Amino acid sequence: MRHGKKFNHLGRKTAHRNAMLSNMATSLILHKRIQTTVAKAKALRKVVEPLLTKAKSDTTHSRRVVFSYLQDKEAVKILFDEVATKIASRPGGYTRIIKTGTRQGDNAEMAIIELVDYNVLLLGGDAAEKKKTRRSRRSGGSKPATEATEAPKEESAE
């Protein structure tokens, strides 16, 4: 009977699966966003969220526990210095999975998994505040239509 067996084995042996998820967790922490299949993203979320919660308390023990899983000093440093300060007030739900369609080769469902507090487009950060310019074939380029019509009137009045 398979009562309570919910873990997705991802078609790999235990050692291979653990190594793959550890490498994916390191990449997610370093790059803040990675593209993978939906099944791997869901499995990765179950691995990364406890590590992010552990990073909220910056103690030697928690650093050693996280390092024992990630095996990357740079990723541990970024996790405890940068990421933990951003997620300090968040009670959970540190990652977001966005489905992006299917892969052309084998029709696998693809997704982007990202850290929630690092998506500046959804948060309305610096990238969202950039002024949008519309490219049209009408009047003189980037000036709004009202400025373009007012300028000739001023010249004719002189």
From TrEMBL:
SUBUNIT field: Part of the 50S ribosomal subunit. Contacts protein L32.
Entry-linked Pfam families: Ribosomal_L17 (PF01196)
Family (UniProt): Belongs to the bacterial ribosomal protein bL17 family.
UniProt cross-references to InterPro entries, sorted A to Z: Ribosomal_bL17 (IPR000456), Ribosomal_bL17_CS (IPR047859), Ribosomal_bL17_sf (IPR036373)
UniProt-recorded name of the protein: Large ribosomal subunit protein bL17
Family annotation (SUPFAM superfamilies): Prokaryotic ribosomal protein L17
Stretches for region Disordered: 129-158
The organism's taxonomic lineage, starting at the top: Bacteria, Pseudomonadati, Bacteroidota, Cytophagia, Cytophagales
Gene Ontology cellular component annotations, sorted alphabetically: ribosome
Highest taxon listed in the record's lineage: Bacteria
Composition bias, Basic residues: 131-140
Keywords of this entry: Ribonucleoprotein, Ribosomal protein
